[in-house]
Amino acid sequence: MSNFKAELSEMSFIQKFKNSSKELSKIQTIAVCAMMLALRVVLGIFTNFTLAIVPFVKIGFSFIPIVIVAYLYGPVCASVVSALGDILSIILANPSTFSITPGITVCCFIEGIIYGIVLYKASPNLKNIIIAKALVLALCSLPLNTLVLSFLMNMNYFTLLLYRCAILIPFAVVECAVMYGLSKILKLKKA
Known about the structure:
Arp2/3 complex 21 kDa subunit ARPC3, two-stranded antiparallel sheet, 9 helices
């Protein structure tokens, strides 16, 4: 049994993608991903909020279904749910303006991949959760999303980055706590 756990923790990135794509051939996986997509859309519409003093930083809990899918089914499933969730949230929240931003959707897709690579078939410990969140912040939320927003809002990139760091980094602590609680619940469900 210990060899099996060691084998899972040392699974390569390529193997995680292969296993995750195989998960899509199961009806249960598609059903759970569809439910998590629906939850992602609902949370994306109703739980994301902006602060009055910094209107260009959204915080919320729409990451929860992505983390669940990443933990259960890997990077392929999580990235698809994340990107589709972003698109559907925009369409359903404001159907008259249909203002999808491809750059933000790509960032959502990458976030799903990062969560899936780090969390899929890995030990649900605080270290892995912090690594996943730090990578999402360092690769997507702060540099890429800020770049897209700076073009959209015609703002200075570095000023916008400072504002976003001041809010997103402290909120990452809350997200890590939520993800850690979720991982413990999902670990109990898997056993």
